[in-house]
């Protein structure tokens, strides 16, 4: 791994950068697993409400099936140089039961409201319990920036 030019950030800077990315980014890789069918990974649009990641998927998707059976999920932002990995448990809400503020924020961010589509959609909310963030080898040590749901500063 080439590390030339990488300046190691402290924890507070990593937390700040991660929070900014959670607001600005639009895609997240979602990793789920089903006890009988194994792992599944898919990219989804997401919004961040300051505490949780909100995603939406078809109510009949593999992701929806998996979180109903096994709520533990891992999420990752799509940049292999500026890594952000989140882990937590998924809660899910049918599109007619999702909290209005979460659905509105999702619709505002993407210009698309799944509640107006044909077919059923499932909103998935993940409050991270752990977050790891690093840029290259110099930041591998100290990459944990959230533990037990609390940001480290």
Characterise the protein shown here.
This protein is of the alpha+beta class. The chain has helices at 11-24, 62-69, 100-110; strands at residues 27-34, 38-48, 53-58, 72-76, 82-94, 121-135, 144-147, 150-151. A hairpin with a 3-residue loop joins strand 1 (27-34) and strand 2. It is globular.
Task: Give me a quick take on this structure.
The chain has three helices and eight strands. The chain is an alpha+beta fold and 153 residues long.
**Secondary-structure element series:** HEEEHEEHEEE
Please mark out the parts with pLDDT under 50 across 5 or more consecutive residues, or reply none. none
Helical content band: 10-25%
* Number of H- or I-type helical stretches: 3
Shape: globular
Average pLDDT confidence is 95
Number of strands: 8
Rg calculated over all Cα atoms: 16 Å
Largest sheet: 6 strands, antiparallel, barrel
Structural class: alpha+beta
What is the percentage of strand-forming residues?
A: 35-45%
What features would you highlight for this structure?
153 residues; alpha+beta; six-stranded antiparallel barrel; 22% helix
Give the helices and strands, then pairings.
Elements lengths: L10 H14 L2 E8 L3 E11 L4 E6 L3 H8 L2 E5 L5 E13 L5 H11 L10 E15 L8 E4 L2 E2 L2
Antiparallel strand pairs: 1-2, 1-4, 2-3, 3-6, 4-5, 5-6, 6-7, 7-8
């Amino acid at each position: 791994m080439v590390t030339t030019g990488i300046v190691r950030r402290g924890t507070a800077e990593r937390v700040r950068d991660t929070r900014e990315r959670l607001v600005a980014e639009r895609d997240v890789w979602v990793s789920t697993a089903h006890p009988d069918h194994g792992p599944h990974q898919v990219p989804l649009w997401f919004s961040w409400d300051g505490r949780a990641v909100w995603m939406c998927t078809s109510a009949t998707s593999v992701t929806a099936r998996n979180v109903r059976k096994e709520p533990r999920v891992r999420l990752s932002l799509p940049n292999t140089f500026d890594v952000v990995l989140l882990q937590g448990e998924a809660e899910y809400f049918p599109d007619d039961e999702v909290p209005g503020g979460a659905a509105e924020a999702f619709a505002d961010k993407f210009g698309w409201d799944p509640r107006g589509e044909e077919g059923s959609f499932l909103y998935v909310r993940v409050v991270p319990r752990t977050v790891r963030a690093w840029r290259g080898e110099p930041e591998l040590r100290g990459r944990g920036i959230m533990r037990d749901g609390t940001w480290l500063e």
